[in-house]
Amino acid sequence: MKSIRSLPGVGEKTEQTLNAQGIYTINDLVFNFPKRYESFKEDSLLLAVDKTNVTVTGIVATVPIVINHRGTLKSLQFKILVENQLFQVIAYRREYLQASLKEGMTIQVKGRFEKKRQRITASQIMLKPIKSEHKAVYGIEGIYDSIISKIIRAAFNTYQIEIAEVLPRNLLTKYKFTSRFKMVYDLHFPYDTNTLDKAQERLKYEEAFNFQLKIMKEKLLSERTVKTPKSYNLAKVKQFITTIPYELTSDQKAAVNDIFTDFKQTFAVKRLVQGDVGSGKTVVVAIAIYGAKTAGFQSAIMAPTEVLAQQHFELFQTNYPLIKSVLLTSSTKNKEAVKQQIVNNEYDLIIGTHALITDDTVFHNLGFVVIDEQHRFGVIAREKLETKGNPDICYLTATPIPRTLAIVIFGDMEISNIYQMPEGRLPVITKYFTKSQEQSVFEHVKKELKENRQVYFVAPAIESEHRGESVINLYNRAQEIFEEPIFMLHGKMSGAEKQQTMEEFNNTKGSILVSTTVVEVGLDIKDATMMVIFDGKYFGLSQLHQLRGRVGRSDIQSYCYVISDDIDIERLQIFEKTLDGFLLSEYDLANRGPGEFLGVKQSGMIDFKYANIETDFKIFMNAKDDALKLLKSQSHYSFKQLGT
After folding, report:
1. What is the pLDDT of residues 23-36, one digit of tens each?
2. Cα–Cα distance measured from residue 116 to residue 113, given in angstroms and rounded to the nearest whole number
3. Is 614 within the bounds of a domain?
4. How far apart, in whole angstroms, are the C-alpha atoms of residue 144 and residue 151?
5. Is residue 2 included in any domain, yes or no?
6. Which residue, among 359, 353, 378, has the nearest Cα to 369 in the 3D structure?
7. Which residues contact 223 (CB under 8 A, 6 or more apart)?
8. Which one, of 567, 573, 564, 574, lies nearest residue 535 by Cα?
9. pTM confidence score
10. Spatial separation of the C-alpha atoms in residues 195 and 185, rounded to whole Å
11. What phi and psi, each to the nearest 5 degrees, are found at residue 516?
12. Cβ distance 303 to 372 under 8 Å?
């Protein structure tokens, strides 16, 4: 790879500036595409609408003069001949151009057009008209865009660029894509809008195709991962379902059937089961776990925290005694003895954290793994699961993932959606308040506490001064306002401290828990009837919805109050009126991007630079089909990353 220093126009200072942007080689330079484009498409002033921005090329028709305005403000004024008509040009703070502009010169002017006055207030005056309809904007501090364009053009002109084709010939033909070399050139120097559109379409497709190759490869590898089909006892499973004290919704039944269909396959299946807060996902997997038991297989549930693992364990102990379960976490006493009991098949269900899969735990015959709130784990290596016996995997999430995102990102998984809610649940009354109305919220909190009910206070940060209300400050304020017991919970506490705090809060009627979003997922405290979220502007709607789901878990009316700035009212009105997590997730995808659903660990893997999951959904779907066909037709395919 040749250094950028070999290019004309690149001295030591320019080299250092480009190096600071990660640009060292000529290929680094040409694959550093413009961040945006400034339009220089020519307009007709005869057809232009009043008070709109225009770009025109014309001849300087009068000697430019400088006009003094109030203070130090000056303007350059002259007339320009465009389409055989004279138009006035006024350019504020451009008096330095007076000496350069001569009568008869052909120039280009960009600015705001006033039709009645036949005048253009210029924002830019180009002494050499830009012939292309689009000017590349690179946004690199310390170096002009024109300089970068000049250097890149020199690289092309001196034949110092090596750009290998990465797409199969049949796809180039199918989509009538230009060559990769021409795509790169056109992205820097688009002749017109059509040229730019074609280059960008190919670039987006490359990125989508690269991503889908990885996803589809994982899917095919999973389908080649041989497992023993589970011969479950249907009669016993039906009998188990009769012990559940309520009728399953049709969506729950469909999800159960989906998982049992997976059990019959000869390859390990990954399935995402997503449903709103309180939609009854746990009972679905409980039935599946019992089914796996009747087939002679153990199951495991992995929770993101020890607190939630403990809660899962208590729930199964209480509600599903026919499933013999054990809790295995870093806090478990007699851990080695428990591990030996697992090997001896003394338990049907092992509940723990991520360590269940990654540590040295040996199972007797692991056949089914449930991963709760999968986006909090990051990617779990398939190889790790293979060493545990190629189990079927069921990922659970109460943060519904928008359809477009799910299809694109989780293409290697089957998906079951639970839309319906069990009957009899009172909807949580949701309201937003401005900070000036905080006192009225506190008055309601006092009423709930007097009824021996529990209240959550949630802040966006532990102690940050730059991210709104902090837990520590809120905890101190609450102690001054309320006489009742107040507890504090945040992510910097140890697992044991969190567990103790949750137990104390759970056992203390009429108390407040001040917390960060560690309470967001899965906590099930029946007497909690009020959720107060401070500085709501720092939370996505899906996250607010998750927090709302911590209350309303009994037959007592519950409330979710969000305190935020006036500027956040429009968004919070949507939250106030919408109890459907699937709808809120679509809003979040459009306004906050995919990271809201995938967490920090995974959002990086889909940090697309060029393609957009929503607006380029068709491109992703085409790339998905093409990648699958290619992988099925070839045993091996080497794909070069963008920028190589």
Report:
1. 999 999 999 999 99
2. 9
3. no
4. 11
5. no
6. 353
7. 267
8. 564
9. 0.70
10. 10
11. -90, -165
12. yes
